[in-house]
Write a structure and sequence with these properties.
The complex is a heterodimer of chains A (115) and B (112). By secondary structure, chain A is an all-beta fold. Chain A has no helices and eleven strands. Chain B is mostly beta strands and 112 residues long. Chain B has no helices and eleven strands. In chain B, the strands form two sheets. In chain B, strands 2, 4, 5, 9, 10 and 11 form a six-stranded mixed sheet that branches. Classes of the chains: A mainly beta (115), B mainly beta (112).
C-alpha cells in the first residue's frame, strides 16, 4: 500500500503525559498536513510543511503542540502535557505541490484518548 | 469561525434515491472545492472536486453543482446504494494542494 501511513492507530494516555505520532506521506509528495478531527466534526487544519519547512500553523496549535519534518519525508506531531480536550483523531495528509488539482490524500489517523 | 457551512447534518434515503448535500462559503478567494467521503475508522477520501469557473461537474454517480454568485455548492449522489452510507464533507481552499477548510459533515444512510 503506497498511501499515507500513520502510527500508532490508537493511543491511550494519562493527562499530563507527552505523546508523539508519526506520519509517512506518499513518497513523492512534498507537502504534508496535520489535521485534528473530533467526533461529529470535520477535520480542522493544524499545520503544514513543504519539504522540511513548516509554512503555516493554525491558532488551534497551542504551544504544547510541536510538529517536525526533519528530512522532508516523514513527520512527527508531539503533544506535551496532554489534556482531556486533546482527545481526538489526528489525521495526516500529503499532496504534491506544483501539480494542478493535486488533492490531499489522508491517512487513517491516530485516535488519541486522554484519561 | 466556520468558513464552510454544511447541511443537513444527517440524511436518510432509500436505495436509488438522490441525496443532496449543500454547502455555503464566505471567502470569495476560495478557488477549489472538493468533496470527501469518510467511512468509520478511516481517513477522508477525495470523491470529486470543482473550481468556480464551471457550474457543474459529474464523475460517475456523483455530481457537484456550483453557484458562484450565491457562494454555494452541492453534492448529488445518483442512484444511491447502501455502500454509499458514510459521512460526506465539503471543503474549500485557496487552491488545490493547500490547506482545506472543511464543513462539519453530513452523515448519510442509504437504506436497502
Amino acid at each position: 500500500d503506497t498511501g499515507v501511513s500513520q502510527d500508532p492507530r490508537h493511543k491511550i494516555t494519562k493527562r499530563g503525559q507527552n505523546v508523539t505520532f508519526r506520519c509517512d506521506p506518499i513518497s513523492e509528495h512534498n507537502r504534508l498536513y496535520w489535521y485534528r478531527q473530533t467526533l461529529g466534526q470535520g477535520p480542522e487544519f493544524l499545520t503544514y510543511f513543504q519539504n522540511e519547512a513548516q509554512l503555516e500553523k493554525s491558532r488551534l496549535l497551542s504551544d504544547r503542540f510541536s510538529a517536525e519534518r526533519p528530512k522532508g519525508s516523514f513527520s512527527t506531531l508531539e503533544i506535551q502535557r496532554t489534556e482531556q480536550g486533546d482527545s481526538a483523531m489526528y489525521l495526516c495528509a500529503s499532496s504534491l505541490n506544483g501539480v494542478s488539482d493535486s488533492p490531499l490524500h489522508f491517512g487513517n489517523g491516530t485516535r488519541l484518548t486522554v484519561t | 469561525q466556520q468558513q464552510v457551512k454544511q447541511s443537513p447534518q444527517s440524511l436518510i434515503v432509500q436505495k436509488g434515491g438522490i441525496p443532496i448535500i449543500n454547502c455555503a462559503y464566505e471567502n470569495t478567494a476560495f478557488d477549489y472545492f472538493p468533496w470527501y467521503q469518510q467511512f468509520p475508522g478511516k481517513g477522508p477520501a477525495l470523491l470529486i472536486a470543482i473550481r468556480p469557473d464551471v457550474s457543474e461537474k459529474k464523475e460517475g454517480r456523483f455530481t457537484i453543482s456550483f453557484n458562484k454568485s450565491a457562494k454555494q455548492f452541492s453534492l448529488h449522489i445518483m442512484d444511491s446504494q447502501p455502500g454509499d452510507s458514510a459521512t460526506y464533507f465539503c471543503a474549500a481552499s485557496l487552491y488545490s494542494g493547500y490547506a482545506l477548510n472543511f464543513g462539519k459533515g453530513t452523515s448519510l444512510l442509504v437504506t436497502p
